Amino acid sequence: MSVVQAKRFTISEYHQLTELGFFHEDDHIQLIRGEIIQMVAKGTAHETCLRRLWKELPKIVTNRATLQSQAPIIVSPNSEPEPDFAIVKNTDDDYLSGHPQPADVLLVIEVADWSLDYDQDVKIPLYAEAGICDYWIFNLVDNYLEYYSEPYQDNQGKYGYLNKRIILSNQVISLPCFPDLFLDLAKIFPPQIDS
Hints:
Elements: H1 11-19, E1 29-32, E2 35-38, H2 44-61, E3 66-68, E4 85-88, E5 105-112, H3 116-129, E6 134-139, E7 144-153, E8 159-168, E9 172-175, E10 178-184
Parallel strand pairs: 5-6
Antiparallel strand pairs: 1-2, 3-4, 4-5, 6-7, 7-8, 9-10
């Protein structure tokens, strides 16, 4: 009896496929736990939230850190997610020598509408296992921010975060990496459209 097993890729193999032109420039893919994942299309609320983050975060963070959107971070030898937003430490070469790794990451931000289950069920353990201390999900389904902190591993070897806070869309939150900097969530969440 033969056993069928899917091929899992390393980051190096994934990059080689990219260099060979295996993927198209407009493919929305990420390497997660060795699997090449096709990401779903983003809705208008998702894109509006991203645009608003791009308007507000640079004004707040200024030159204290580097902002990146939908750009890779390396979290393990076989995972290179591209979170919707990340605040990473400044480097002299602006990460020309390699993508940010967990020690460089100050905050990971995902914006979730259709991807909410994936961002909760897959990304939480992925980021927690990498030791990323703070993870935000702009939950557009329930219209609030989910703030996860303090990664841990339980007795069964599963990873997660000890703390989950809910911050409402009309509240203000300080950035975990810079407690003296505040983000007004009312300027980020798209207005609710009555159907």
